[in-house]
Amino acid sequence: MEGWNKQTFEAYDDAPQEGSFDWGGLIGNVLAGLAAVAAVAFIVGTAGLGAPVVVGAIAVGATAVIGQALSDYASGTVSSTGTYITTGLLGAVAGAVSGGVGAMVEGAIPAGATALAKMGIVGSSGVLETLIENTIMGQKTTWGDLAFAFVASAGLFGVGDNLTRAFTSHADDVIGNVAGKIDNIVDSAAGQTDGLIGRVVSNSDEITYESILRALRHSDTPEGYAVAALLKRGNVKLVLKESHPSGLGGLYRFGTNYVTIYTSVCRTPQNAAGYVAHEVRHYL
User: Virtual CA dihedral for 44, 46, 47, 52, nearest 10 degrees?
Assistant: First the structure.
């Protein structure tokens, strides 16, 4: 004879539960951590410690908080609010210190240093910053971390430095050409406009230092009197020449106090006075 005894239990759901992760707690903790980062950034900023220190505090602090959040999500467990605040504070302090140190190291690069030397200094600065950040954060630093910091810092600086020099050189050429064309146009417009500085009266059509000075004074304008005074006191030296190869009516040599007027274009003291007033603006 064979028999069985059995007991029946109610069915229950033993499948993994979805949607149980505490998203509200995670978001709140992240905001608390970022608030701690903002507090450190505000303190160092109001203390006048410089942009690199503030940027370093924000960048490293925010990265640390986000890294803590990603770690919690991967584990399925949300850490305490205190953990996030501590992480944000330590990260911000580490970033502020490393940012300040890095700025001082890079600021000490000699002006005549070669590109390779600059990359070496910046790469070493990246290694030092990594050591500082990991030490303050209580993290282990490996040789691989240091090697990556050196290569990344030096490489990014090298690329950025070359791009900056190339752009600056091209921009200088473009700006120089445009400025030259604009100056020629303005000079031409000044020569074509009679009485540019107002009512100008002269007793002679011959262009001389005295006739230009009279024309400026007879204009009865504040600008005319001011320019005449500069000429009379010797603050501005007036040079008269027959013509310019490019057909200019007037020219100011930057870095000097010399203004040259070309009589073949000006033709009358009135026009010459207009050119003088225009060129003196460049001097001022």
Answer: 50
**Angstrom distance (rounded) from CA 242 to CA 54:** 60
CA-CA distances (angstroms) from residue 112 to 135, 141, 162?
A: 34, 34, 15
- The pTM assigned to this predicted structure is 0.45
CB 68 within 8 Å of CB 83: yes
Nearest to 207, CA basis, from 253, 283, 264: 264
Per-residue pLDDT of the chain (284 residues; tens, 9 = 90+): 555 566 666 766 665 555 578 898 899 999 999 999 999 999 988 988 788 888 888 988 899 899 899 998 998 899 999 999 998 899 888 888 887 777 777 776 777 777 777 777 777 767 777 777 777 777 787 887 777 767 776 667 666 555 555 555 555 555 655 555 566 666 666 555 545 444 444 445 788 888 888 888 887 888 878 888 888 888 888 888 888 887 787 888 777 888 888 888 778 888 888 888 888 887 77
Residue type, 57: A
Contacts of 281-284 with CB under 8 Å at 24 or more apart are 282/252, 282/254, 283/236, 283/252, 283/257, 283/259
